[in-house]
Amino acid sequence: MDTTQIVFQIALILVPAGAVLLTAIFFMRKMQENDLRSAHQVLNAELKKDRQSFFLPQRVDAYQRVILLMERIHPNSLVMRHNNPGLPAAAMQIKLLESIREEFDHNIAQQMFIKGETWEMAKKAKEETLKIIHLAGQQMGPTSNGMDLSSKIFEIVGEVGTLPSEIAVQALKKDVQELF
Q1: What residues does each domain of the chain span?
Q2: Which tens digit of pLDDT belongs to each residue from 155-164?
Q3: Which of 37, 73, 81, 140 has the greatest count of CB atoms below 10 A from its CB?
Q4: Model confidence pLDDT, tens digit, residues 94-125
Q5: Are 133 and 160 in contact (CB under 8 A)?
Q6: pTM for this structure?
């Protein structure tokens, strides 16, 4: 046999063997990539679970505090808590407005644990409650007292129907239920 035939015979053996080797390497790499991807997904799932177990109590606490905030700034609750019939209406109005702002400012950090749209509802509830107090205050005369202001606030609340603070409480409760 001459050398070209020998080279040809060797090539007939090596070319298919090389193709098989390259195919095996290709599939082994794909399997390794899939294993790495799968391990990465498992690790991410475990990290997410750890984060949730760490932050869940803080999130639940934040929702509780904001629900309490909504209950405390509800006009009926405010009037009952700050009831002072002998106080001039303007002074009582200022007291109620300050109370709402203080309550809200005290709980502002809770927004980082609460859904953005739900926090916006809580902010809107605060603003709408301020508007109710302002509206009632605008309808008071110079000799009006705290009892007059309280009565006007109750009247406005009765006309409004469902207050934004009540709507916010429902949204907060729904969010908490979705956590579990």
Answers
A1: 55-179
A2: 999 999 899 9
A3: 73
A4: 999 999 999 999 999 999 999 999 999 999 99
A5: no
A6: 0.71
